[in-house]
Each structure stands twice: as structure tokens, then as C-alpha cells.
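Recap from last week: sequence in, structure out.
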Amino acid sequence: MVTVISLGGSIVAPEGVDTGFLRSFRALIGQFLERDEKRRFILVVGGGGPARAWQSAYRETAAAVKDEEADWIGIMATRLNAQLVKGIMGDWCSQEVITDPSKVDPFVNRILVAAGWKPGFSSDYDAVLLAERFQAESVINLSNIQRVYTDDPRKNPQARPIDAISWEDFRAMVGDEWTPGRNVPFDPVASRHAAKLGLKVICAAGRDLPNLALILEGKPFLGTIIGG
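Predicted C-alpha cells:
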């Protein structure tokens, strides 16, 4: 059984690295690996605070700002975070960090760690491609929001949380265009491919590890199911 987790960079490194979260996350993943010897995880790590900070610096100082260059800066931040996560996972992860999900060696251990690939989308798209490659039924998308809302609740007090939504309706909300650093519950490019595959995506709060345990156990949880 392969479980794909898109681990938001805002959880790993909101500003500096959240070592307390990483320690607890590793312990939780370890519990599930020990409980079921057939269980394996793919962890796709985002850029978080480092990506935003370095992209902001680029936009403030570059003579001519290019989206592709900003994207590459964000991608490099995902790779730094992913290398950290790989190191933390120790012997469970013996393969190098995946930076091209279209070229993946056979899954030989218990955990694969992946990072950003190339400009044009976020690491969410890499998670969808890896779910397709290893026939996972869903992607668990962990970020700094508990659920998807009808609108940005920080700007619209009338925004309502959503328990479940179709890909058609979700894509109508987020559109089709990706811009570097864009903050949406799930990348529009990833959403388009996930919808094509009929893949289910679960959006949930990354730091709520008891809730993540419920998701991994197939029990009722707090979050939003997209598609499926």
C-alpha cells in the first residue's frame, strides 16, 4: 500500500525549520510503518517560508522579473526542505530525493521523498504524478489550512468550509493558471491532472497529527475531500 503525502513547505519551514513538527511527524510515520510491513509512503515536500522569502528578494531586486526564474528559486527551496526530510527519515529512505517524477527508479524501501521538478506548477503536481506512477488511490495534501473554503476566510467572513467538492467545482474556484508562489489549496495544474485521473485529494491541516492518523487509518477526519 502506497500513501502519497504532499507535505506543504509552510508546515516544514513556515519561517525557520519547525523541528518539533518534524520530530513528531517522523514518529507518526514510523508507527504506521511498524504496524504494517507492506505500507510505504511517498512524501512530496514544498518550499514554504524559504521559497517565499527568496522569491520576494528576487522580485524586489531583479532588473526584470521572470516567472520562470521565480519558479526555479521556489523549486530549489523545495529541494532543500526535501533533503532535510529525507535525512530525518534515516534508513527508511535509502533513495535520493526525487526531482523528476517522470523518471523514478523502482521503490526499493519504505519511504520515497520528492521535491519540485521544473517551472510551471507546484510540488502538488509532482505528488499527483507519483500517485499515478505508483497507483495510489489518493493524495493527502497537508498545509496550513484545515479545510477548503468557498472563499478566502481571511478576507470574506461569509466564506464557508467545504467537506467534499467535485473536481469540476473545485477547478472553477481555483482556475487553470499557475503563478510562482500562488497560495491555493491545491495547484491548478495538479488539479487538472488529478481530475483526469479520477484521483481523490484530501486537504487537511498539516500540524494536526492526530487528525492525520485518522486519515491514515481510514476513519472520520476533519478536512476536505476533492473528487474521489
